[in-house]
Specification:
about 475 residues; mainly alpha; 21 helices; about 75% helix; disordered N terminus
């Protein structure tokens, strides 16, 4: 059943048009839901299945919409096996879209509800998958290993009578194999990966979602062992596996891996072909990701606006009572504190004089880049050179430190890059042109920077960054 596809034969599922990501797919899949609302008479399992299917085929925005609609109903019914599954999917979608804090919070909720599942096998399965999902959200290698070990322990505890037992075992063994790969024990890792594939017959191998990752990891292992032809063979098998669902995220990733393998083999025609196909799909994926980010960000803003309106109404009633009391207290404190205020003012003036003396000793070259360095930064920015951010950080160390102090959580590299462009006084259109990204993508990144810096709506981000540590 295993076939070794040539690079030209792969064209039948090479290019996914942008219409592949539009909302018509969502409308089609939820057409049987009146007014897009979930009532108590609906079969939750069907909607859960739709969300999982959409997520598995790469339609993340549509999957997220269904999950948001049914989440409260599932929670009210205490169907924890569905709830844990949906929260795990939602956490991965948001985390990969750049909403890292939200993703981490959701995966913790998924684990919490998985522990409440009464059925023993479902309990182990959902905990196992949740632990595996969390491995992609942490950077500490020790924690990653602990999470993989926990996933392996739960998935290998599933009863052989459970229909998902083999899939769980495949994921468990694959996770264990990746731990061995991290420790450079490639022979042992390959042994376990092949063992995971042998759990299924050749006619069912390409129908089980979990085996896709096993095939891909085997390709990566062969690549790391400099067995590039074997790596391509496993990547092609993974592509065949993906043919039924046509998940563009999987396809793009495999095309990029195949480009790298062919490039190592000095097969320029094949390497260039897969790189071009990857670029086409990646452009569509970026567009879909921007739409998802915009959708999530818009809903977050709407929720904040609603919350602020409610808070303002509550504050009005509080102020009516508290304002006269506050004015009276202020006048009393001012009258008592007058003698101390003059002394404090004198001490502050002395401190300012000392601080000015210290600052004056620092040369201007240490505070900001010179004309030559600025020119270099502009040229790197216009060329979309990957060295741009590295150079910027070396020329503006205090600016970067200040950003990291103000931002919570910490800014990621793509967000620091936006701050760097704005510090150079470039506008959104210029940044879009230089980085070959859509204006919407740049605006979404600007929104995430504003959110992490906790800026008020009336504060202009560009002016704030231009004047930061200036």
């Amino acid at each position: 059943m295993d076939t070794n596809l040539s690079y030209l034969e792969a064209t039948k599922y090479a290019v996914h048009k942008s219409s592949y990501f539009d909302r018509e797919i969502f409308k089609k899949n939820v057409s049987d839901t009146p007014n897009n609302r979930i009532t108590k008479t609906d079969k939750i399992s069907e909607h859960v299945h739709k969300a999982i299917t959409l997520y598995g085929s790469g339609h993340r925005q549509s999957a997220l919409q269904i999950i948001n609609e049914i989440e409260s109903t599932v929670l009210a019914r205490k169907e924890y096996h569905h709830l844990s599954n949906l929260l795990r999917i939602k956490s991965v979608i948001l985390y990969q879209a750049g909403f890292r804090d939200e993703g981490l919070q959701l995966i913790e909720r998924s684990l919490y509800y998985a522990k409440k599942i009464a059925d023993r096998d479902s309990h182990h399965i959902q905990l196992g998958y949740a632990f595996l999902a969390k491995t992609g959200m942490v950077t500490d290698e020790t924690i990653k290993l602990q999470l993989k070990a926990a996933a392996y322990q739960h998935m290998t505890s599933v009863s052989t009578l459970h229909p998902k037992q083999q899939s769980a075992m495949t994921s468990a063994i694959t996770a264990y194999a990746t731990s061995l790969m991290d420790k450079k024990e490639l022979d042992s890792a390959e042994f376990h990966l092949l063992k995971a594939l042998r759990l299924f017959s050749s006619d069912t191998l390409y129908k089980v979602p979990d085996t896709f990752y096993t095939l891909e990891i085997l390709g990566i292992l062969c690549y790391e062992s400099n067995r590039f032809a074997e790596a391509i063979n496993y990547y092609q098998k993974a592509l065949r596996h993906n043919e039924s669902v046509k998940n563009a995220h999987h396809t793009s990733r495999l095309y990029l891996r195949m480009h790298g393998a062919y490039d190592k083999m000095n097969k320029d025609i094949e390497a260039d072909y897969y790189l071009r196909q990857y670029s086409i799909i990646k452009a569509n994926l970026d567009s879909a990701k921007d739409a998802l980010i915009n959708d999530v960000a818009t809903k977050a803003q709407d929720q904040n606006s609603t919350s602020e309106q409610g808070n303002s109404r509550g504050l009005e009633s509080i102020l009516i009572v508290a304002l006269p009391i506050s004015i009276s207290l202020f006048m009393l404190v001012w009258y008592i504190g007058r003698p101390f205020a003059k002394r404090k003012q004198y001490e502050e003036s002395e401190t300012e004089n000392e601080s000015f003396t210290e600052v004056s000793r620092v040369s201007e070259e240490q505070l900001s880049p010179n004309a030559i360095q600025l020119s270099e930064l502009y040229n790197l920015a216009k060329a979309n050179n990957p060295l741009f951010l590295t150079k910027f950080c070396s020329y503006y160390p205090r600016y970067i430190d200040r950003l990291n102090q103000l931002a919570f959580p910490e800014l990621v590299s793509s967000e620091l890059e936006i701050c760097a462009y704005l510090k150079l006084n470039l506008d959104t259109k210029e940044i879009s042109r230089y980085t070959y990204r859509s204006i919407r993508s740049i605006e979404n990144r600007r929104y995430r920077v504003r959110k992490k810096l906790n800026l008020s709506p009336d504060t202009d981000l560009k002016n704030f960054l231009l004047n930061l540590d200036s």
